[in-house]
Amino acid sequence: MGDRDGDPPTDDRPSSSGAADPTGTVDATGVLRAFVEAVPTATLVCDPDTLAIRAANPAAADLLGHDRGTLTLMGLPDVGETDRTVAGEPVSEVAARASNAGGSAPDDARTERFEWDVRIGDPGLRVDAALHTATIAGGEWLVVGFSDATARVAAANERDAERRLVDALAGTVPLALFRCTEEGTLSRWNGRLASDSGYEPAALSGTALTSLFDEATRDAVSEALSRVYRDADPAACEARLLTRSGERVPYRLSIGPVTDGDRVVGAVGVGEDVTEASLREERLAVLTRVLRHNFRNDLNVVTGFTARAIESIDDPDLTAELRRVVDTAERLLRLGETSRKVERLLSQRPSPRPVTLAPAVDAALESLDPAIHDRAAVEVDVPEGLVVSAVSFLPEAITELVDNAIRHNDADEPRVRVSAAELPSESWVSLVVADDGPGIPPAERAVLTGEETPLEHASGLGLWYVNWIVTAGGGTLDIAESKAGGSRVELSLRAAEGPPSDDDLFSPNERDA
């Protein structure tokens, strides 16, 4: 091969297009070469009849991988890996259309465009080619321009692959997935949204998301979208999807922003039909209320009649057995009360907020049953100013721990210590409730480790309730032995990032509301 920038060999073959100078004294090759060298992009000039390449500029040599001398020994179809375009059409037929367009046709009508694989492999080369005829040196020539399309095609293929992956995932997820434009209209969605709403996919295109919901709950969807677009924050809401047939379906939406730099340019969301969950929650709520009401009333009857029986007999053994009945009934009553609290916690789904720890501990001790509180010596060492991230039910967790520490201690004067300290990491605060009692049985501790079994399980909900409250605020719970030989329950609570709110003080009435 010669130098890529070397002069092409002289070709004195007459052109069928009559491209030679009419006087016959000037060879058109020099004119053609001067023409292509004036073009900054990769360009060839070909004989429109034979498609023989007559001139090539340096940019074409660099792009196509052949020096200019070699290119002028080739025909246009020889440049590619095959003589067909990416679409499968012979390059010669495309060139023929460009040649037959005629000089009188508009520029856009005279240009033929196609993609062509010039080199296959790694790295390959795909080009965008544009063919048109031009009058040069008194004759008609086929001018071919090339631009490298490899990166564009690779990016498009990657986007197509990602789109196929997203579509595949969207088709397998049992939830409605959608994307909204900056105006809040649907631009993409999966089949689940179309199925849930009852609309044909084509009917959803350009539909405002809010219009899919009934008038009573449409504002909730609008407010969630406004928050996403205004604050670039995720938002969630519950509404009723109004189907094409007029059915109102309970629906839960979670929506997040799509951003371009600092600007929100759309939203993506997940929708879920919660009909079954709503029915289940409603039925469980009814069942719980009925059971709790009958449970409490019947046990009160049991304790009342048993107490009267105790007063009317003198048999010590029988009296002891009847007292066990009363103790068992009272334990079941406390279990029912704890279940009520658990139901309230799960239904309200509270969010963490900054809480000043000392007032929360004070409120917890104030809500203790006075008969229980008076039995024990409770020591408190909680520094002022400790602020933690917790849910508003935190005092109830502390009350539960202190109540258990006293109630299950057989000493004449049980001793309980409630202490708190900021951990060295400064991101966590430790709250410890320690006692000198018999300790928490292994079966009770198992609720925290997942080792509880049907044959050996916890007898109450107390530790479950405490653990749920603590974990709802992002904390953890750990049980160990205290220095006095009893139990040591440590709540690790996240330190709050902001100051406490004005309503961070707790009272039993507030929590029972």
From TrEMBL:
Keywords: ATP-binding, Kinase, Nucleotide-binding, Phosphoprotein, Transferase, Two-component regulatory system. GO terms for biological process: phosphorelay signal transduction system. Residues 1-14 have a biased composition (Basic and acidic residues). The keyword Phosphoprotein applies. InterPro entries: HATPase_C_sf, HATPase_dom, His_kinase_dom, PAC, PAS, PAS-assoc_C, PAS-like_dom_sf, PAS_4. Residues 235-286 form the PAC domain. Coiled coil: none annotated. Residues 1-25, 493-513 are annotated as: Disordered. Gene3D superfamilies: Histidine kinase-like ATPase, C-terminal domain, PAS domain. Residues 161-232 form the PAS domain. One of its GO terms (molecular function) is kinase activity. The keyword Transmembrane does not apply. Residues 290-497 form the Histidine kinase domain. This is PAS/PAC sensor signal transduction histidine kinase. The lineage of its organism: Archaea, Methanobacteriati, Methanobacteriota, Stenosarchaea group, Halobacteria.
